[in-house]
Amino acid sequence: MVDRLAGRFICRTCGATYHKIFNPPKEEGTCDRCGGHEFYQREDDKPETVKNRLAVNIKSSAPILDFYKAKNVLHTIDGNREIDTVFSEVKQIIEKR
Known about the structure:
Blueprint: H1 2-6, E1 8-11, E2 17-19, E3 39-40, H2 47-70, H3 83-96
Antiparallel strand pairs: 1-2, 1-3
């Protein structure tokens, strides 16, 4: 998850967003949209920040997850699969409700 969240970067010229693994520019170091060559990473996307955000999120979400699990309405989905597969599973759960 850290790799997924910490891999984002942005073209400084036009603001186009990329991901080093999942959505790199067609030509390394060159923005697909504007041809710019300067990129940056937001502070929120740096690995240390991402790890801290995840830890805080997990700690603060635990009571909510426990609540919905006790009501038997919590669904767990493996998000490390293809986007279409994950979307399909989420859609099926929603449609059953």
